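Interim report to the steering committee. The following record documents the input for Nitroreductase (223 residues).
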Amino acid sequence: MILDVYEAVTSRRAVRGFTDRPVPRQVLERVLSAAAWAPSGSNLQPWRAYVVTGGPLTELKKRAGERVASGDPWDEREYEMYPPALKSPYHERRSAFGHERYSALGIEREDWEARQRAAAANWDCFGAPAALFCYIDRDMGRPQWSDVGMYLQTVMLLLRAEGLHSCPQMAWSVYRRTVAEILSPPDELILFCGMSIGFEDVTVDYARTGRAPLDETVTFVEG
């Protein structure tokens, strides 16, 4: 399956429903080998990715699910996911996303338990048979975190070229100790995010979130 670059970009979205169809190892190797060409300042390549499938992923999902079921507190965050107070227009965009996401699931804003159950699907990788966990060295600065973002976007677009979908998940950072039990990463690494990978379950309803008009995010300065 070959997609035009524009089609790959516009068809990429955070899929939250996957089939159990296995993702071939050679496909993942092909994607990650190509993604290694993502740009990074001075070619530092500050990402460290772990790909988990089969028994280890099943065990990780099991352990994470047990923590969810027992109400075990989240691990302390090693980075701030969002500023404590989001100003406009970011606050409105985040609120709109939440409304669209939970409305598609038939969940009312006030139904906190239902929202928690929906969020818990993160730690089952939404049923995906493969997951990627992306780490970065603790010594890296903001520019290198930006490099990691470019790497992950490259991975996601290449997955689309292979007919696959993904869902990047910072949510895994709050169960980072459980992930570490399976992966045993070096202490100098911080877990940035997980990413569910697989074939989309087309029977799962979803709402495609919109994007801001071009003039809200882009300024053309012309002579």
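The chain has a mean pLDDT of 92. The committee is asked to note this result when reviewing the revised timeline.
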